[in-house]
Amino acid sequence: MAYDLQKESDVKEYLEKLGVEYRFGCYSEKKPEVCHLLGDYLESIKKDFEKASKVYKSNCDDYGYAKSCYKFGNYSFLGKGKSGSKGDPQQAYKYYEKGCELNDPESCLHSGLLLVSRAMPKQLQRNVPKGVEFLTKSCDMNNATACFYLSGMHISGVQKQAESNVHAPSNNSSEYIIHKDMKKAFDFAYKACELKNMYACANLSQMYARGDGTERNEEKAEKFKKMALEMQEEVKKQQQTLGFQQGLLPN
Q: DSSP string covering 219-241, please?
């Protein structure tokens, strides 16, 4: 049957049929990729976050579907899907870690960030070396944000004190968990920029201008500065387009 997606009745019928197909593919055919689509359908179309949460959790636990582990990790961290529930960082970390073990780059990013953060949730113990392992795995799988964070950590180094002055200068190298290493910082920034991280491109421009982690090169400094500015303009255009489209939606 052909649907006219300009007609509200056809759209409604199409979406209902889509939900039936996803339920069949998940519950009858037991296809994990379809179960994940069902979770997305319940989340974005039906706005039934409680059911979506259950589908993501089950799909992670029963089928080891990495993207569902990541989604349920997000739900756990935010307390989403349970009425009146507070976030559970410990459970979120558990599912992020599982998603990372299953090679989901976003799961590796989030499990790493939880472990290296200065504002660690009290339910978790800060573990910078393990966090860096997760971030490195994410970066190796071409997650631009992970590469950018790793670059920043190597620009300033990370001190052992979790409570305060984590990035403050120190002359005692034994106080550092991650030592300042501008060559590594440059390499991570370069990869993050290649992966279209605007902030990494801006940092790369400064590194070339100053000769930090690489030889000074004014031409390349200008090149990456231009790239960062072009990305910034593209982000602004996308935000303006999105705002315009939202303004056209009926109340």
A: HHHHHHHHHHHHHHHHHHHHHHH
